[in-house]
Amino acid sequence: MRSEPSPSAHAGGQGQDASKVLLVTGAGSGIGLAVVRAALAEGYRVVLAGRGEAGLLEAAQGNSRALCVPTDVCDPEQVENLFRRAVDHFGRVDVLFNNAGMFGPSGAVDEISLVDWNATLAVNLTGSMICAAAAMRTMKAQQPQGGRIINNGSISAHSPRPKSAAYTVSKHAISGLTKSIELDGRAFGISCGQIDIGNTATAIMADLGVTSGALQANGSLLVEPTFPVAEAARTVLFMAGLPASANIGQLVVTASGMPFVGRG
After folding, report:
1. Can you give the pTM of this predicted structure?
2. Which DSSP category does 125 fall into?
3. Which residue, of 78, 83, 103, 140, has the greatest Cβ tally within 10 A?
4. Residues forming the active site
5. Tens-place pLDDT, residues 17-28
């Protein structure tokens, strides 16, 4: 049964109808989780996608405007089911936050395995393409036509960390995917932008040693600053809440003072 839209709310102070439908991949943890929580608080209807159902249900917290659909973004059939479920339940998809990803292997290019390389690109790049393709088909078919895709890139789309070839290549490729989607979607009212986030406080940053000592280009270890993940989520919702007449092609948001400008 299709649920009725919730009463209108205003997202991010932009005066937009926040009852729009936002689909978030990688929704059970990190930035995806923060975006889900912030979007539900703003009145969005939210579709949560991720591999683990338990994490999705915990993220949704029983909210009636949340739909949880366990999904492997690398599987085209599961992604088609995700968007079909979203349309059956909410009637349309207004925004895709293409967020699912992994950091992948740590090592110089001659030290990482082909298996790990392929696994990283499968999730970060091919998974993003599969989800974007399904979103494009959905947004072309719905009435009124159109929508917005926001790809989660990284500051590694601009400048890599040492020993991160697979992740860095995947995020550079996301920049090309973003621009291609923006061009291909124009005739259908579909816009695409990319957010490149640096050192927001999530578990992956702790795993990389950012808060205890991250490897720098000169071989030293440096404790790097972070910023609250809620601020990253707020920035994503700012992009999501723009009117159809406006688009942010690429936005970089980092912790103040992190070694990005002048990295290396």
Report:
1. 0.89
2. I
3. 83
4. 167, 171
5. 558 999 999 999
